Amino acid sequence: DEEELDLEAQKAEKRRRQRRGFAEERPRVYSLAEKLELLFRYDFPTVRDVRIHPVWVAGEILEFGGDFQKYISSKGLQRQEGIVFRHLLRMILLLGEFSQLAPAERDPDEWEAELRELADRITECCRRVDPLSTEKALEQIESSEEAEED
Q1: What is the largest CA-CA distance in the chain?
Q2: pTM
Q3: Which domain range does residue 48 map to?
Q4: In sequence order, which residues have a C-beta less than 8 Å from that of residue 128 and are 6 or more positions away?
């Protein structure tokens, strides 16, 4: 009886291995930041004295619920906190510029609303970090938009 159970277990293991096929790892999916790093390294192969590290700042901060400090701490970016903050302020500006250029396949009003919502979420995150700098940056954005309209 025991030999039959052992034989059945061996047969079951053999069938499971056959169904599984080759044990292949899934291909790695690169983030946009990683793709940009690869492109930079391809376009500028001789640049070696610049240290770069790809990060997906705005998207990841939103994944952290807009909690800037939690994001900075979890990623070990305390020394780059100011750079990250300025990046977010520039992202707000960029979203405003992109909102005016809807892709052909998208409804312009929906596109603008979607990007405005992202900009508002990032703006709120920045206000919690440094309200004065955020308001100053938003004023500069508004004044540059008004100058373009004139």
Answers
A1: 92
A2: 0.67
A3: 2-149
A4: 66, 68
The whole-number pLDDT of residue 7 equals 75
Q: Could you report the per-residue pLDDT of 68-95, keeping only the tens digit for each?
A: 999 999 999 999 999 999 999 999 998 9
Q: What is the pLDDT of residue 19?
A: 67
Per-residue pLDDT tens digits for 92-110: 998 988 888 988 999 999 9
Task: Show contacts of 80-89: CB within 8 Å, 24+ apart.
Answer: 84/57, 85/126, 85/129, 85/130, 85/133, 87/57, 87/58, 88/57, 88/58, 88/61, 88/122, 88/125, 88/126, 89/126, 89/133, 89/134, 89/137
Per the structure, the count of domains in the chain is: 1
CA distances from 75 to 16, 57, 70, 72, 95 (A): 41, 10, 9, 5, 24
Closest CA to 57 of 46, 48, 68: 68
